[in-house]
C-alpha cells in the first residue's frame, strides 16, 4: 500500500472496527518482494563507508536507494547494520550477527526523492569497545549490549524498506551487500560530528531518535496504529497492544504490555500502540525516555493541553484530593504512575488513599501503609480496607499495580509522591518493568542450545509418549489428513533419540486426536481418535472413537481393549492414585456429533474400561482436552486450560471429586476465556501442589494472552494469583516441559490460530517466580506441536500444523543450560523398582544435593496432565545415599519414573528408570 | 542500556520476581538471581508425602450440575477449529483472521477478507464443495476462495 493511501485506509479500518467489523488493512497493491540476499525491489548502494575503510570517531554513513516498483510506494526505512561473527556467538538469537548503527525512518533524503534518493547518517564509534543497540534478535525486544572484538571481520550493510514492506513484511526490498571494514578503537577522528536527532514530522511522535506516526488523540486505536489518550481515567484500548504512560513533562513513567486500559497520569497521557506500533513502542518507550509530540521541537516540552476524550468507555472517577494530586509514586527505586488520589480503585489502578479511616478498596489487591514520614509501615496482600496511618496514606494496587506494589513495597521502603502539588519531585529512576530477565548476552550456560535432529519424522505425529526404554511413541493415525483418513492409512512410529532412528508402525485405527497415558507397567493406553472426519463429506463434524488400544514397547505392538462408554475425540486421560485412568471430554461417537458426556475409568487390574454403572456419571461436559490433574488428596483439579471452545462456567477452574460428583470453584483465574490451548503444569516439586497456567487464546473469537497464573492447592482457600507474564506477546500452543533441575521450559507458540509462530523460549524458575529467556527454537511451531523431556536431560520438540495444512516433520532438540555447567553427577546404582514409603540405596557421584522422580511425558494439543516431578528425601553423604519414596500414591501414581539426582550447581544426572508400585 | 545498567536491571528484575514469589504459598524464596532452581526449590513434604495433608479445605464442594454443554463447546471445535466449508479438511481457515484475532474478542467472527486470507494461504483455499461459499470469498466461482481472480 502506498504511504499516501495508508492513513485513509486506516481511517476506514477504524470506522469499520468501531462498528464491530473486523477487517484487514486492504488489498495488496504490489507483489511481495521475495526473501533473498540479493533483493531487486529496491536497488541500494552504500557509498560510505567505503570498502576497506577504517572506522573511527564519527563515522559517516551514506546510502542511495531507488524504488524499482512504483506500486510498492516510498522508501520508508534506511538502516545501516554492522556485522561481526562474534555478535551471533554473544547472543545466539541474533541469527544474522548484526547490530544497528543508525537508521532513517520516514525521513526525506538529503537529495533526490522518496523513491530515488540519498540518505545519510552518522555513527559515533564507542570508546568503550561495547555497543548498545538494536540487533538481529527480532524475537526479543529492546536494546542489547555487545562487545566489539578487536579481531575478526567487520562489515557494514545498508538495508532499505519501503511502504509495501511496512504493510506486508514481505521480504527485504533492498540491501546494499556487505562492505568489509576495520574498526579503529583509538581516539580521535576527523569526520563531521553526528547529526542531531531530526525533529519529528508534523504527525510523528519521537522517542529518542525513533519516530512513529501518531494516528490521533482520543481516537479509536485501530489495527497497527499509535494513539494518544488523555483525560482523567484510563486508556480505552483493549489488551491487544502496548502502552506507556507519559507525564506532563513528556517523560515515560510506566509501561503496560498487553493489558487493557492503562491509567492516564494526571496532566499526562497514555501512548497506545497496536501491532507494529506496539512493537515500536515496546522497543523505544522505556521508562525515563522523553516523548516528543508532533509539532514539538525539543525533548523538554511544556505540558500539553488535555482535550476531552471522545470515546469514554469507562466510568470517570471523581477525585477528591486532600494532599495534592501526585502523578506518580516512587517506592524504593521503582516509579509508577498513580491513577489518582482518593478515587475508586478500578482494574489495574494504583491509587493513593488519604484521610483518617481505612482504604475503601476490596480485598482483590495489595496495599501499603505509608506514614507521614514517607516510610512503608505495613503491607497487606489480598485484604480489604487497610488502615490509613495518621498524616500518611495507603497505596492501593489492583492486578498489575498490585504486583508492582507487592514487588517493591516492603516495610521500611521509602515512598515519594511525585508531581504537581508535592514538595519533592525527584527525577524518576528508570526501572526495569518486565518481570522477565533480559535475554542472556552470551554463553550456552545461560542460553542452552537448540539443534535440529538429523532425520525427519516419517509421519505427522500429533501425539508423543516417552517410553520407559528411552524411546518415544509417535502417533499420527491419519495425521490430520483427510486423504489418509479416507484411504484408511493410519500410521505410528517409535523414535529412538539415541541414534535418531524410526521404527514405522501401523496404527490399528485413526488415533488422530486420541488421548493417552502411561500405565503402571509402562505400557501406553490410547483411547479414542477420529471416527468421522470433518468436511468428509461436507457438513460432517469430527466424532470420536470408542475403541482403545494398549501399546507395548516390548513388542512394538498394539492390542485392543474393550470400548469406552462413549466415543471421545479430544479426551483427557489422567492417571489416578491406584494406577487407574480417569478419562472424559471431547466429542462423542454418536450420530451428528456433539459433546461426549461420559466419565470413563480404565481399571488396571482387569485391563478394561468400566461400565457406566461402575463409574459415577455427572453428564458434565468438561470440554475438549480438559487440563485435569490429579491432586495429592486424590481429587482432580481442572486448571482452566483446554483445546477449542469456551471456558467452563463460573470461575473457569475447579476442584472435582469424581467419587461423589462434587465440584468446587477456584477463583482468581485471569483471562479465563483465553485459555484455549494454554499450557498447564504442576510445578516442580509436586509436593508443593502449585499449578501454573500460561498463555492461551481463543480459536473461536480471536485473541491471545501472555498472562501466567499460579495456584497453590495446599492452601485452605487456594486462589489463582498473577505470576510473571510470558516473555513477548500472547501466544497459544505454548509447550511446557518440566526439567529435572526443577524448572519448566516454555517454548514455541503462535500469536493467532495456527499461525504467528513465536520461536522464543524461556525457563520458569519456581524459586524466583520468574522467566529467564533462553535460546530460541530455530523452528517455529504452533498447533499440533508438543515436547517431552528425554531421560538424558534434553528436550525434544515435535511438530507444527499451520493453517496451510502442512506439517513440520523436523524434531528440535533443546539442551538446557544445565548441560553446559560442568560435569554431571551420575547414578551409579539404583534399583529397578521401588515401593511407596520405602527407602532404597542409591549410588552416586558428584556433590548430590537432591533426588527426584519425573514421570514420562505424553503430550498432545498442549495437554499433558500426568507429568510431574516428585522430590525424594535423601540421606547419607558422598557416593552412598538412601532415598525414600513418599507414601502418598496420589502424589506419584504407580508407574515408571525417571530418577535423577541434582548437584550443588543445579546440574542433573542422566535419568535411571525406576518403577514405583 | 550499558553493560553496568543492564546488570542492575537484572537484579531489579530478580528482586521483583522474588518478591512476587511471596504471593504464591509453598514456594521457597530467597535464592540469589543466578542460583539454579534445584538448589533452593524445596518440597513441602510434610503431610503431602504421607497423604495426611488436607487440601483446599475452605473450598465449598457442591453437587456437580450438568450445565449446558453448548456453552463450553463453542462453534468450531467440532470442525477442528476451522471454518466449515473450506479447505477440504486439509487446509484450515480459522474462525478469525489474524488481523481480527489481534483485536481479540471484539472482532466479528469470520471477518476474513481475501488479503487476510492470502497472508496465511497465498493461493487461497478450496471450497469443500463448489458453489457453497459461506463467507463469500470465491467471487469468481472457481471453487477456490481468494484465488487470484477473487
Account of the 3D structure:
The complex is a heterodimer of chains A (917) and B (150). Chain A is mainly beta and 917 residues long. In chain A, a hairpin with a 5-residue loop joins β17 (242-246) and β18. The longest helix of chain A has 13 residues, at 6-18. Chain B has five helices and three strands, in the order ααβαααββ. Chain B has helices at 3-21, 37-40, 69-73, 98-103, 114-120, and strands at 62-63, 125-126, 144-145. The longest helix of chain B has 19 residues, at 3-21. Chain B is elongated and about 70 Å long. Chain B starts with a helix and ends in a 5-residue tail after the last strand. Chains A and B meet through α5, β29, α7, β47 and β48 of A and α1, α2, β1, α3 and α4 of B.
Quick summary of this structure?
The complex is a heterodimer of chains A (917) and B (150). Helix content of chain A is 6%, strand content 35%.
Number of contiguous helices of chain B: 5
Low-confidence runs of at least 5 consecutive residues of chain A: 1-29, 187-200, 299-324, 420-442
Query: Based on helices, strands and strand pairing, what is the structural class of chain A?
Result: mainly beta
Spatial strand sequence of the major β-sheet of chain A:
62-64-67-66-65-68-69-63
Counting H and I runs of at least 4 residues, what is the number of helices of chain A? 7
Distance between the termini of chain B: 49 Å
Order of helices and strands of chain B: HHEHHHEE
Helix content of chain A: under 10%
Q: What's the alpha carbon Rg of chain A, rounded to whole Å?
A: 29 Å
Overall pLDDT level of chain B: 73
Give the tally of β-strands of chain B.
3
User: Number of DSSP strands of chain A?
Assistant: 69
CA radius of gyration of chain B:
26 Å
Strand-residue proportion of chain A: 25-35%
Biggest interface, CB < 8 A: A-B, 157 and 106 residues
Q: Summarize the amount of helix of chain B as a percent range.
A: 25-40%
Biggest sheet descriptor of chain A: 8 strands, mixed
User: What is the overall shape of chain A?
Assistant: globular
Q: What oligomeric arrangement do these chains adopt?
A: heterodimer
Distance between the termini of chain A: 66 Å
Largest sheet of chain B: 2 strands, antiparallel
